[in-house]
Amino acid sequence: MHHKPKHSTHHSPADSTDAHAKSHRWLLPVLLVAQLMVILDITAVNIALPHIAMDLKMSGSTISWTITSYSLIFGSLLLFGGRAADLLGRRRMFVTGLGVFTASSFASAMAGSAAMLFASRAGQGLGAAILSPAALSIITSAYQGSRRAKALSAWGAVGGAGAAVGVLVGGVLTQFTDWRTIFYVNLPVAAVLLFASLKVVPADTQKPRWRGLDLAGAALATTSLAAIVYGITQAHSAGWTSIQTHVCGIGGLAGLAAFAIYELHIDKPLLRVERIADRAVGGGLVLMLAVAGTIFGLFLLCSLYLQNVLGWGPLTTGLAFVPLALSAGIGSHAAGHVISKHGVRGPLAGSFAVAAVGMFLLSRVGAHGSYLTDVLPGMLVAGVALGVATVSVSMAILTGTRQEENGMISGLNSTGHEIGGTLGIAIFSTIAAGASGAILGPQAASGIGHAFLVAALVAGLASLVALAVLPRAQHFLAKLALNPQAMPVH
Q1: What counts of helices (H) and strands (E) characterise the chain?
Q2: pLDDT digits over 81-134, tens only?
Q3: What are the distances in angstroms from CA 142 to CA 130, 145, 151, 282?
Q4: What is the pTM of this model?
Q5: What is the pLDDT of residues 41-92, one digit of tens each?
Q6: Residue 452 — pLDDT band, cuts 50, 70, 90?
């Protein structure tokens, strides 16, 4: 007589289905946490800037490179990172980006000089540029229909909430530990993400395809943008009319022109430059530079004013940004409903005009000001307006794109955001340092006020650009009706 074994060594199809469903359930949280980690390392460092400057003996606009070296590499390599995910494998690139980001986080925490910190932050930017588009590509391939819409909505929410969470995390860690903890905390989080990603992220089924990566285009774009940002940040010390400033500025612009020409003449470009001729795409890209630069500048200048002029601690400063995050969230939520009725031209022109008012209110900050009367009103006004503008400008860029262009145009949208933020930090920190001779200490108030005033002028100019460049409501709404998935989901 034969007896059946009590435990079979074979798994039934039902068991395999359950295991797949379980891993699929954890896929989105893993990818969202990875994206949150990438975003946190921008705003969390904002709060720690004064402490980093004192510890590593930075001065003037040099301090802004703590953020710029990260966001510049991140933004200028996003298109390349997206292309690499398509050709080399999504999971391979996600894990590679996570590894580079983690190693660079450790190097940032161990930095003993400003140069070492800047180089390590650039490494973090490289890791983020590989990881982030790979994660987004995994989402778009793993989810379909309404599930994809919800997943992309969650992805967008992480992007918005990350800024608020970042200032709070940065404030807590800097107040009770040390600024280096901001980077050390990435290590255990990344270890968990690495273990989880190998379990839940679908394995790549194709071999890596190295041809078509366009390394030359990526190198040309990154070098050109770096030259422009370097020229702006060093203009105060070298002189705006100096040979160095002119060589960096003109050389960078010439490099971008060469990049555009090069991309037009290769079979598999990082960016189809001709798409920028579309008024919504090209105009939206210009306005994305303006809105991102204004937002990044707002966080930086408010942080420096609260800590260095008013003498607030990191935790209190982090909490002071909560109203800004809430007001921006309200603006972002309202934007979808406004756009569906009025297109993007009117809402963008109006939101930039309101943002200009908020920045003008902030330009009145003084050495003996107060948060409630000198900072909060302008912060709230600018926050709501910039929340509307951020969603509206993304909609302008993404609506009407062809199905096969979704990845490329989404990458262009993200690139515009990061590069705009990079330029904003470089310009506004240089103005703040140049107007008062310092960006640290109570004497920085007048320089910070000047920088806010320039931000108001930029927002006012962007309002006029929106009216002149973007398509009228009826034309845009016709495109939106053909591409409803571009609308943000609330």
Answers
A1: 18, 0
A2: 877 887 888 888 899 999 999 999 999 999 999 999 999 999 999 999 889 888
A3: 19, 11, 10, 30
A4: 0.79
A5: 877 887 888 888 888 888 766 787 888 888 888 888 887 887 788 788 888 8
A6: very high
DSSP structural state of residue 373: I
Distance in angstroms (rounded) separating the CA atoms of residues 235 and 241: 8
The two three-digit tokens of residue 34, written as one number = 């990875």
* Residue 316 CA from chain centroid, whole number: 24
- For residue 428, which of 293, 275, 261 has the smallest C-alpha distance? 293
**What's the chain's average pLDDT?**
82
For the chain, the residue count is: 490
- CA–CA gap between residue 490 and residue 475 (Å, rounded): 24
Cα distance between residue 270 and residue 85, in whole Å: 12
Give yes or no for a contact between 281 and 275, defined as CB atoms under 8 angstroms apart: yes
* C-alpha closest to that of 174 among 379, 358, 316: 316
Q: Which of 256, 305, 234 is nearest to 455 (CA)?
A: 305
Q: How far apart, in whole angstroms, are the C-alpha atoms of residue 252 and residue 225? A: 6
DSSP annotation string for 383-422? HHHHHHHHHHHHHHHHTT--GGGHHHHHHHHHHHHHHHHH
Of residues 446, 454, 458, 428, the one with CA closest to residue 61: 428
Residue 404 C-alpha from the chain's centroid: 24
